[in-house]
């Protein structure tokens, strides 16, 4: 099995989930006492979040490119970024390393198309829902029509991620907010919903949604393991 390098810390809550999922899937695939060969560089989320708010994406790209280089120097043979939002700067990461980089939207897009989905709702940070780096990739590479919540709903979804889930706070009333947003997306024609922030799976499980759930964290982790095993 090849070595998976993970850029984590955005937030550490979801990075811990990545570590668990990567190793759980490795054990399921290889059996016995196997776990994944992996490295993780954990960035400090506070300065990352501050730069997000000011929109300084070039500085963010430099920071994450540096983290990717650290992983490559440490022996990583594949790099993944354990966050949806920061794929806004994926080109800076890809240009900084010689090993492959697995984009989080691609395993999700492939799974949606395999399930026959054409119109999908997207939940994530305001950056992911409102900018085109994510929805554009789903459209151009996977032929998916993406629908996002309205402005007030986007504000609620974003606030719950940053003020609660990133701090490990999982609240029933916030789950109810997300459930109502998903119901609205379903009424607007979405056939499924993407949990397009790596913390959302802490709050929303498949049984909580009226739509089929596509969890980017789980799909990304699984795809990384499959690559690491099949490429060895």
UniProtKB/TrEMBL annotation:
Matching PANTHER family: ASPARTATE-GLUTAMATE RACEMASE FAMILY (PTHR21198:SF7), GLUTAMATE RACEMASE (PTHR21198)
UniProt cross-references to Pfam families, sorted A to Z: Asp_Glu_race
Upper lineage: Bacteria, Pseudomonadati, Pseudomonadota, Betaproteobacteria, Burkholderiales
UniProt keyword annotations, A-Z: Isomerase
Superkingdom field: Bacteria
UniProt record similarity statement: Belongs to the aspartate/glutamate racemases family.
Gene Ontology MF, one: aspartate racemase activity
UniProt cross-references to InterPro entries, sorted A to Z: Asp/Glu/hydantoin_racemase, Asp/Glu_race, Asp/Glu_racemase_AS_2, Asp_race
Name listed for the protein in its UniProt record: Aspartate racemase
EC number: 5.1.1.13
